[in-house]
Design goal:
Radius of gyration: 19 Å
Largest sheet: none
Number of domains: 1
Order of helices and strands: HHHH
Oligomer: single chain
Number of strands: 0
Shape: elongated
Length: about 110
């Protein structure tokens, strides 16, 4: 299994863990947030690398006489990681936002006691 596949699996497992975690388990929520955000940091580099490959492919296809739209469609086929990373990471960032909100709520509840 590649490093990219391991990172995507790790994020998936952390999100599954978040789904099972109790709403008042602040320590677990902070740990999950830490795992997801650090994995997203790693994936940003991977996404940048795949984006370069994706753009190179588009440019080659355009130079071969393909339209921009056709070149982009063909590049998605040759570099499927670009689409995968775009959508998985976007979803993971949404989960990060939810975690931050939940942790903030827990903190305000704890401070009001």
């Amino acid at each position: 299994m590649s490093d990219l596949e391991q990172a995507l699996e790790h994020i998936t497992n952390q999100i599954k863990l978040y789904r099972k975690t109790g709403v008042n388990d602040g320590e677990a929520l902070v740990s999950i947030l830490q795992q997801i955000t650090t994995t997203l940091f790693y994936l940003e580099k991977e996404r940048a690398d795949y984006h370069s490959k994706f753009q190179d492919e588009i440019n080659l296809l355009i130079l071969d006489g393909n339209s921009v739209a056709r070149s982009e469609n063909k590049a998605h086929i040759k570099v499927p990681e670009m689409y995968l990373l775009r959508h998985i990471m976007s979803s993971a960032y949404e989960v990060v936002g939810a975690l931050r909100t939940q942790i903030s709520w827990l903190k305000s509840e704890k401070n009001s006691i």
